[in-house]
Design goal:
It is built from five helices and four strands, in the order αααββββαα. The protein is an alpha+beta fold and 164 residues long. α2 packs across α3 (56-66). The termini are far apart. The chain crosses the membrane at residues 141-163.
């Protein structure tokens, strides 16, 4: 049974385990998060909380896009949330939390190259490459990837035929 679980884990994570796959699956969500954070910085008001309902197929690539995945399957009822805090000097900081069990408080995660309380400007800069602004941009990225893959396949076929 342990082998089957490990194969399932590896198969599921293979769908999201690099930055390009993570960006394709979570880039629109990352963009929405960053737009809301940017608005909070400018307006200094807005909603106190924004909730999204999702499942492991969204949370797993989001963890990879954030650079904080632990290569484990996301359990049912897991939750990722970002808290934006304003210090006394009005600077904004972002903190990422991951709750993957009800028997432990949420884990405070840290973006690579950032402190646990990450300045919002650094948070946005670090996540900028994972951002996809709209569905049209997503389609363009997907089409470009498909064309590149087709070109690689065509080159391999030509090389194979040349060897004969």
């Amino acid at each position: 049974m342990r082998i089957i679980r490990e194969l399932r884990r590896r198969g599921r994570l293979e769908e999201y385990n690099n930055l390009q796959k993570a960006k394709l699956r979570s880039g629109l969500l990352v963009d929405d998060w960053l737009k809301r954070i940017e608005a909070a910085d400018i307006e200094k008001k807005g909603p106190k909380a924004v909730f999204y309902s999702s499942h492991d197929g969204t949370l797993t690539p989001l963890l990879y896009a954030l650079g904080v995945s632990n290569d484990l399957l996301v359990p049912p009822a897991a939750c990722i949330f970002v808290e934006i805090v304003r210090d006394p000097s009005s600077d904004l900081y972002a903190q990422i939390f991951y709750r993957n069990t009800s028997s432990h408080d949420p884990w405070l995660l840290r973006l690579p190259n950032c402190s646990a309380e990450c300045p919002v400007a650094d948070f946005i800069t670090q996540l900028q490459p994972m951002r996809i602004g709209n569905e049209k941009a997503l389609r363009q990225i997907c089409n470009a990837s498909s064309i590149t893959n087709l070109m690689v396949i065509a080159l391999l076929i030509v090389a194979f035929l040349a060897l004969k």
